[in-house]
Amino acid sequence: MEYVSGDVPGIYKFINHGRDIYGGMIESVEIELKKDGSIRGPVRGTWKLEEGYKAVMEIDGDIYNGLFLKQWDEDGKKNVMTFSVLCGKTGVSVWGSGLSAME
Length: 103
What we know:
With about 100 residues, the protein is mostly beta strands. The chain has strands spanning about 10-20, 30-35, 40, 45-50, 55-60, 60-75, 80-85, 95-100. The chain is built from no helices and 8 strands.
């Protein structure tokens, strides 16, 4: 599926998985992906949507690549925008799950 830039902005639960592979719980923080391409909250940077689904983010000076995807939020019983990106330089992965419903 392809998305447009207007599908992405909003408040997200953000999880930085780092490079850990243990089974421990990681707490999320709330961030905002703004319409102007900036990221605000405890995490700062920029975001871009490319080719209808590819996510490119700059966080703390590092570039992360991955994808945006609409997924079902079982707790909220609604479809939300999500992202999953990885920094090729550091091996750090981060995820985000939108709080607003999508049609």
